[in-house]
Amino acid sequence: MAHAYFRTKSIDKLLASAELPEHRLRKSLGPWSLTALGIGAIVGAGIFVLTGTAAAGESLHVHDIFKAPLLEVILHGQHALGASGRPGAGPAIALSFLLVAVVCGLAGLCYAELASMIPVAGSAYTYTYATLGEIVAWIIGWDLILEYAVSNMAVAVGYSAYVDSLLQSFGLTLPRKLMEPMLVGGRWTGSYFNVPGFLIVMILTVILVIGIRESAGANTAMVAVKIVAILIFVAAAAPHVKVANWKPFAPNGWQGILTGGAIVFFTYIGFDSVSTAAEECPHPQKDVPFGILASLVACAILYISVAVVLTGIQKWPSLRNAAPVAHALQAVGLVTVERWVVIGALMGMTSSLLVYQLGQARIWFAMSRDGLLPRIFSSVHKRFRTPHISTWTAGLFVALPAGIFDIGTLADLSNIGTLFAFVLVALGVLILRRRQPDRKRGFRVPWVPVIPVASVLCCLVLMASLPLETWVRFGVWLVIGLCIYFGYSRYRSEFAEK
Q1: 27-491: what fold?
Q2: CA angle 143-10-433, nearest 5°?
Q3: Is the pTM here over 0.85, yes or no?
Q4: What residue segments make up the domains of the chain, in order of their start?
Q5: Rounded CA separation 145/410 (Å)
Q6: What is the pLDDT of residue 63?
Q7: Which of 205, 184, 244 is nearest to 409 (CA)?
């Protein structure tokens, strides 16, 4: 019985399933479209917020054991409560971004190898089904649904604030009761609905249903605007840089650099979404690895550029606020550029929403095609050749809660889900290298097993740095998923007893 739950699905069968006429998706994504998808998912509003936070550091006061990081609870127990904080990296935040890019590159290399071997929708879910077995695949698929959904709920909730900021810069205002969630912290706010958050998700859902080519085109346009906004900030602020602001370069030494890296690590998350679109690419063996690694390199350059300029125009201790880039621009008299920063943040959030909605719909689609979710979710639109039912479902699954609840506090659930997926993908590389060493790989991770093992260890350390309550919520979500698996999915998968 236990063995049945860990049966793996043949890679050849996965590839054959993707070519069935009733499930075939339109193949229209090239290497640069995939790179734009990666940049769209990675670079969000966080580049204008977390850069300053990590440079200046954080002061925390933990009153509840569930709010303390898991590692602190394990090492210190009740002593994890009380005042604590993370020392700022100072101008060395640029070095933090570089180190984090290298760490994310470890996971990116593992994704690239598996994507070149199994260019099928589903990303880590599909890779796990081919390596670790059905029940583990269900767990990671259920986890990915949570990761993409919660991440987008949190972004959609905050979207209204940026829309409001942009409109106010033009002298326009919208009714507050249509700009905020109905419930915050379990209490009624008096608002009717978060209309902008709901609308942006549903508009993007329509674009995704119409076609992958149109979706990729819209994303590329938003990525271009986002990059232009970042470049305008860098070019306009660079003449105001004072070398004295970069001294001392690393005021808190390596401890500050490493803790700064822990804060900004999650700004890099999103490159894995490139692999969810592998099935819609004519040449996935080469193009998907290129898209994953190129998007990581491009984002690292953008992040480091912003970090260098931001810490050059303002002393790093002054960057500890909710909008460090905007405040720094005001301080040097560049108020006009601030509007571009808001536009860049809006484009960043919108493109991130688009790519994550695409990824979530492909997870629903892949799990349905394998029988683990109802078959209706793997329906493909006859004209648009997109998984329209799963796309509409994913859209409503995000848009409705975003209009009602304040879900920003649950953003750590997205982080732990992503890191868990990274761990399983790295393990998948090791397993397939042992079981199928001669299978053709369009891309190979160098220095195996060193790089996959290093990726697993780095991800586990970062998971342990998340609060205990995040682990509890993550555990509850997985228990709910296992109940669905044992009550429904295991009876309908291809391995179910006849």
Answers
A1: Amino acid/polyamine transporter I (1.20.1740)
A2: 80
A3: yes
A4: 27-491
A5: 14
A6: 67
A7: 184
